[in-house]
Structures are given as structure tokens and as C-alpha cells.
Amino acid sequence: MCWVVDDDRVRADTIASFFIAGLRARHRVIYSGDQPELVLAALRARGADPAEPLRTGSLVADVPESSYLAAGYFDPEAVLAGWAAERERARSEGYLGMRVVGDMSWARRDIPGADRLAWYETMVNTIISDGFVAGVCAYDRRVFEALDLREFMWTHQGAAATGMPYDPATSLRVRRVPAGLVLSGEADRSNRTALAAVVDQLFDDVGDDEREMVIDVSELRFADTAVARILVQAAHHGRVRVVGCSPALRRLLGFTGAAEAPGLTVDGGV
Fold first, then answer.
1. How far is CA 13 from CA 9, 29, 48, 92, in A?
2. C-alpha to C-alpha distance for 47 and 193, rounded to whole angstroms
């Protein structure tokens, strides 16, 4: 999710709460941003001594130079590979999940590659789609332009901001399963970029264009025309079966060319 915040105390306290819950759930928790010391102080203020989690590696609190800028500049492909490696490392070490908070203020510096941040944020969806990782990208409203913030928010499956709490029911959830994808929540202009990234990756992941991929939309509360177009376009790259369509989504699929998509099958609605 994209989190637009404009208060340092709220940011540190909320991250601390998120991390404490993660540590209790046996998750590996990672902060990467310009102010790791404030996050550690917030943990202590809540009665959670970070010394032992830091020692064992269940808690990581580092500056962007250890992740986003490890190459000396922003190399989005390398950063994505790094997060994928961290995910597999957490799995192999027995953690039940991974929580990452990226404080993105570093992107406002004069850093080569920062102009590719929106593409990077879009592709992060392909790293977290199996449900093992909970990722929060924190954007400070005081340092980012409003138009940039809107673009970044659209690359995430959900968003929250001052006066706009995160609502899991209306945010999009895209979960990768062996058979394909399960979509839930609401899919519209605010998150269709995130959806398209994961859908486009379907056949790359399996490496088999002949395999039919199932997209379960039975838990979608709302979908707009752009979402229907994404589903139809996927069937031009391989065999896709959409299951659990509402009557409204079936109409949208028909309007956007489902009948002309050779690899698309639409099963009965709900």
C-alpha cells in the first residue's frame, strides 16, 4: 500500500506499531529510510526493546544506501531482485511472513535513476503477490509534489493518507496462487496499474504459454472498464479463464472485446 503521511511522530509511531505486531506474528520486519533511529526510538517508547530482534535479524532498520541505493544510485531492477531475495531468505529461515516499510523521501534527492520510481513501484506488486510480504511505501506529503503522489498511489493496490484510513474492503488485493490469481476488493483507476503488472507477469512466471491461467474474480466488489480491458488483453498472450464474474463484470468484458480474445473463457457469474 501507499501511505501518504505528513507528521514525523505519527509516522514513527505507526511504523513501530506495525513492526511490533509483525514481530509477535513471527514475521521478519524491515525498515529502509532516512530515519531508522526514530523508528527504533518509537519501538523503545512502546516498551519494545529492539536490541534482540536487531541481533537475530528479525528486525532490520537501515538507511536507503543499504537497499534502494546500494548500487550508489537507484537501480530498480537490482532493488526488486534484492527484495525477492529477502523474501526467500525470510521463508528459508522459518519466518511466517515479512513486513517492509520503505520511507521514500530519499527519492527527492538528486539521485540518478529516481525518475524510474513509478515503474519500480508498479513492479513491486509482482514481488508481493503471493501474500508472504506486506509492503508499505511511505511518502511525505511535505516533500513530494501532489501530481507525483497521485501517480505513485496508482501503482499500489491500496492507499492511505491523513483523513483517509486504509480500508481493506475497498482496496484491491491481488493474490498469486498456483492456478493463477485471486482478486478481491475493488479494482478501478486508483489501482489498475498495480493489477496490470501482476496480470502481465502471469505467463512469465510459469514459462508455459499453453497452460490455462485462472483469474478468480468472485471476491471483487467492484471493477471498472479498464479492469475488464486488462483481463481481455491478458488472453491475447495465453489461455485465461475468468471465474466468478458478476453480471456487471460480464457485461464489461463483452463491451471490451471478450468475444474476440482467442484465449479467453468466462465462466458463470455469481
1. 6, 15, 12, 30
2. 40
Task: Return the number of other C-beta atoms located less than 10 Å from residue 150's C-beta.
Answer: 14
Residue 212 DSSP label: P
Grid cell in block for residue 44? 523503545
What are the backbone angles phi and psi of residue 167, rounded to the nearest 5°? -120, 100
pTM score: 0.90
Over residues 197-221, the pLDDT tens digits come to 999 988 876 665 578 999 999 999 9
Q: In this structure, which amino acid lies at residue 93?
A: E
Q: Write down all domains in the chain, each with its CATH number in brackets.
A: 2-161 (3.40.50.300), 173-266 (3.30.750.24)
Residue with cell 503488472: 197
Q: Which residue from 96, 104, 100, 60 is spatially nearest to 84, judged by alpha carbons?
A: 100
